[in-house]
Amino acid sequence: MRGRSPAPGRARTREKGGAVVGKESIPDEEWERFLREAGREDSGAPEEPSARARTVARRLQEENGPPDPWRGHRPARRRGGKGWYAIGLSAAVALLVVALAPGRVVGWFAGGGGEDAPLAAESSRPDQPPPTEAATRSPTLEEPFRGSPAARWAAGTAGIGMPEARATGWMSKAQVAQALDRTRDFLAASSLDPGVLRGEHPKRAIALINPHQQDVQDYLAAAFGAPDEENDPRLLFSRFERTKVRLVGDVVRTRGRITYREGSRGAVEVTTDVTYVYPVVRAAAGSDEVTRTIVRREVVMSWDDPAKIVIEPDTFSLVSYRVDTTNGGCDTFTGYLTPEFGSEQATASPGDGPEVDPYDRSTSMEDRMREAGDAGCGTATRS
Q1: Per-residue pLDDT of the chain (383 residues; tens, 9 = 90+)
Q2: How far apart are the C-alpha atoms of 316 and 183, rounded to whole Å?
Q3: Which site among 51, 161, 274, 352 is 20 to 30 Å from 80 CA-CA?
Q4: Which range of residues forms the domain containing residue 32?
Q5: Is 14 inside any structural domain?
Q6: Is residue 139 part of a domain?
Q7: How far is residue 101's CA from residue 380's CA, in Å, rounded to a whole number?
């Protein structure tokens, strides 16, 4: 995870996995052997899934370009304008962090005590960003979402569009419906659970991840044992340090959707793309200055056929994830989202990166990361 507030940052690039490890290419013999195995759909014995192999196989079936790693990570940052965001990029893991621009805090907080009718759940990608709201009214404890598009978003899982279940891959219609429900359970347990948001360990969410996927288990152990830039729990989980900040009320506004298709070896591959809006204040008693952290996550998971993959019942294998975080901290690797408030934002150094609208869902996460390139810090156009 990249980005630090308010000090300037420095760019660093690091890639792993895929066809490249560090600067050494994988031997041709190993690569050819993998391609043969990835295409062998009728393999007799179950085998432990490799997230890297899963991502490569998925890319080979698409026309988007060369294969990419599950945990490829290119953290970098650029600063510019009045605020900044950090980006880590790969097809498997990508991270974008946006810190608010000084002077733009007003109106960053969604608010809305019912001024507008709530939007229907998102069923497809919008073709344009939401309208720009007037930034003349500050958020309050009573209206923490005032002044932003989230004023019309639904709360919790109600803001996540669910597709109709149909028989897909190895699963019947009923099994697909169950997989979709458990996918939504993971989103709730990782990004909406009150205890997890207060910094508790996300046990229920982790219990849904295939325990035999060793690279993911290694990441989780490191992320919660000794978080750092490479192993940051914020990539998958929303957590605040309770001694520093607390949520305003018990409502998190969301907007996004879940989609699925048949994946490798007949698995049901589910993609989740959801934006979460967290209004917070300082933890000190009597604090009433509201700020907001916005997190957009794209998590791709595979509900695998146990006849072909070593997996526990009712768990999924992680395929990839991308994260776009606004006002959650850049160069802070404590494992918690670290929002800034007005006085801190006022002293933030200007960035030199491109502008980003954290509410714009008309651009896919992949395109957003591609457009940002190696940028690490830029400007949030609104809050």
Answers
A1: 333 332 222 222 222 333 222 334 455 555 555 555 555 544 454 555 555 555 545 554 554 443 344 443 333 332 222 223 333 333 345 555 554 443 333 333 333 344 467 899 999 999 999 988 655 577 889 999 999 999 999 999 999 999 999 999 999 999 999 999 999 999 999 999 999 999 999 999 999 999 999 999 999 999 999 999 889 999 999 999 999 999 999 999 999 999 999 999 999 999 999 999 999 999 999 999 999 999 999 999 999 999 999 999 999 999 999 998 999 987 788 999 999 998 676 555 555 567 889 999 999 999 988 877 666 666 778 88
A2: 9
A3: 274
A4: 20-380
A5: no
A6: yes
A7: 6
Cα separation, 283 vs 281, in Å, equals: 6
Q: How far apart are CA 138 and CA 179, in angstroms?
A: 41
Residue 47 token pair: 């085998």
Whether the Cβ atoms of residue 70 and residue 215 lie closer than 8 Å to each other:
yes
Contact 208, 189 (CB under 8 A): yes
Reference 1, options 226, 236, 239, 332; nearest CA is 332
Annotate 291-308 with b (16+ C-beta within 10 A) or e (fewer): bbbbbbbbbbbbbbbeeb
Reduced to 3 states, what is the DSSP secondary structure of residue 79?
A: strand
Assigned domain for 5 exists: no
Among 300, 314, 313, 383, CA closest to 345: 383
Distances (CA, A) of 117 to 242, 287, 362, 365: 33, 30, 21, 27
- Give the span between the Cα atoms of 208 and 230, in whole angstroms: 22
Helix (H), strand (E) counts: the chain: 8, 14
pTM for this entry: 0.74
Q: Which residues contact 32 (CB under 8 A, 6 or more apart)?
A: none
Cβ distance 356 to 81 under 8 Å? no
CA distance 291 to 305: 44
Distance CA 31, CA 33 (A): 5
The two structure tokens encoding residue 34:
């993998």
Does residue 344 lie in a domain region? yes
Q: Could you give the number of structural domains in the chain? A: 1
The phi and psi torsions of 353 (rounded to 5 degrees) equal -90, 175
What is the crossing angle of helices 51-60 and 28-38, to 10°?
Answer: 80
